[in-house]
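Example 9 (inverse folding). The structure is encoded as follows.
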């Protein structure tokens, strides 16, 4: 799908929490403990009218990884603009910066992340005009002050909206002017709808002229994002364009163009369903998270049973797997306790045998016996009685259990999102 870059002259925090740990980890590939890593790239804003939690959810995705979503209030504000882009056949994109690290949460690795999309307020997302036909648009960048715009104040005031600010497309063209010393130099003039509204400085013109001429050689004009601000008394104009040295080489090869205009503004737009559950919503977050952590070379704590057992044909295999894992772990622990107890008894007997002949050996044996006996007692307190554990047997129409409290539910309920 063709992308549509929204105006990025702003910053908006998105909701990440721990809900998107697995997806964020996939974006980074791996994360160190306690050290913050930064990802800077492009995100797609995807409206999800079929989202079961909120029909006005706007998810934030990097490639196929959902790294967050807009907070509820922000989603309501941006919903008309983003759905308009999607209804026009484009994917709404904006730059995103994610900062993340691994932290230890009670022995379990957890992603601590924050993220922001560079996004203008909703009323400044779209330009008030279209770029000229057969033009390529420069990547957005730092603001560049347009010079001599006051010489065109009457025209600029005529296009200045009542709000006092607007985004618009401007055209950059190379023209030759005569200086006060009688020299002829090339400068970059700034135009709006074929009307000159200012110019670049001589130094900046030298930087942008090769870029403009490169586009002209491919029969394209050079357009750029601009911002007009003012009041009844004054007006100013700036261009938001990346400096030539910061423009990626791919831009010179592709010379990207802005597509057709968006559909007219409306109260509502027809958009396709786009909801995709995250790993956490699928109920498989734990397994995939551990797999991802292992692939990253990080230690992973052993999985533990939640104590909840879902009966029925759809969950029997999963419950049996957990029960088998717990039974194996319990048998090993019980065997360890028995070995320690046997060692304790043997050490006590050795201490008695050497009591009269080797007092030092006898004392050492008693010390070690006390240590092994204490370890056996500690392990027994952790893993319960030494008798064989009872297992749960499920049969159609009859379910018996002598283990800990279990809960039977008809289906797994996905965790709710926190939009705070």
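The amino acid assigned to each position is listed next.
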């Amino acid at each position: 799908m063709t992308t549509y870059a929204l105006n990025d002259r702003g910053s908006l925090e998105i909701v990440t929490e721990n809900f998107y740990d697995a997806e964020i980890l996939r974006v980074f590939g791996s994360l160190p403990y306690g050290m913050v890593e930064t990802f800077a790239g492009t995100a797609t804003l995807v409206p999800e009218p079929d989202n079961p939690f909120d029909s006005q959810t706007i998810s934030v995705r990097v490639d196929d990884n959902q790294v967050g979503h807009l907070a509820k209030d922000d989603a309501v504000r941006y919903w008309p603009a983003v759905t308009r882009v999607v209804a026009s056949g484009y994917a709404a994109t904006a730059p995103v910066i994610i900062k993340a690290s691994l932290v230890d949460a009670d022995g379990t690795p957890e992603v601590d992340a924050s993220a922001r999309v560079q996004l203008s307020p909703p009323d400044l997302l779209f330009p008030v005009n279209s770029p000229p036909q057969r033009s390529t648009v420069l990547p957005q960048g730092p603001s560049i002050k347009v010079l001599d715009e006051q010489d065109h104040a009457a025209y600029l005031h005529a296009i200045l909206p009542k709000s006092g600010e607007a985004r618009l497309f401007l055209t950059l063209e190379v023209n030759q002017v005569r200086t006060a010393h009688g020299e002829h130099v090339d400068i970059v003039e700034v135009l709006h709808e074929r009307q000159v509204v200012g110019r670049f400085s001589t130094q900046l013109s030298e930087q942008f002229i090769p870029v403009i001429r490169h586009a002209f050689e491919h029969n394209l004009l050079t357009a750029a994002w601009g911002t007009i601000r003012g009041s009844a008394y004054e007006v100013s104009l700036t261009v938001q364009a990346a400096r030539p040295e910061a423009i990626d080489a791919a831009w010179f090869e592709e010379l990207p163009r802005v597509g057709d205009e968006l559909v007219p503004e409306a109260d509502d737009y027809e958009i396709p369903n786009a909801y995709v559950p995250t790993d956490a919503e699928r109920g498989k977050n734990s397994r995939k998270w551990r797999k991802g952590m292992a692939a990253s070379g990080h230690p992973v704590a052993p999985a533990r049973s939640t104590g909840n057992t879902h009966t029925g044909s759809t969950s029997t295999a999963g419950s049996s797997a957990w029960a088998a894992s717990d039974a194996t772990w319990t048998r090993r622990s019980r065997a360890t306790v028995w070995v320690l107890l046997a060692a304790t008894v043997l050490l006590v007997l050795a201490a008695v045998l050497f009591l009269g002949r080797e007092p030092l050996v006898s004392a050492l044996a008693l010390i070690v016996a006390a240590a092994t006996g204490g370890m056996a007692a500690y392990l027994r307190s952790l893993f319960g009685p030494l008798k064989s554990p009872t297992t749960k047997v499920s049969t159609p129409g009859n379910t018996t259990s002598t283990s800990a409290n279990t809960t039977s539910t008809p289906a797994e309920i996905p965790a709710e999102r926190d939009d705070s």
